[in-house]
Automatic annotation (TrEMBL):
Presence of keyword Transmembrane helix: yes
Name of the protein in its database record: Flp family type IVb pilin
InterPro entries linked: Flp_Fap (IPR007047)
Species whose genome carries this gene: Thalassorhabdomicrobium marinisediminis
Membrane-crossing residue ranges in chain numbering: 45-63
Keywords attached to this entry: Membrane, Transmembrane, Transmembrane helix
Superkingdom field: Bacteria
Any single Pfam family the record assigns to this protein: Flp_Fap
Amino acid sequence: MSLCHTWHQTPPVRKDQTRTFTRKALNTFARAVAKDEDGATTIEYGLFAALVGAVIVGTVVTLGDNTEKASRKCTTL
């Protein structure tokens, strides 16, 4: 075997080494996600948009009922 051929070969990996690597990779990923606040900001904006939407719907429903009642009064006079 030449030096180039042995250089490209990967050493054998035991199953416990693979599990340890996977566990470390998942822990690193979880820590990165926990530190990232972009997701929390997105959720906050989503909740704020839902609140604004609920207020708009409530206002339209209330004003719509009042407008309909006022319109009926005007037509019956």
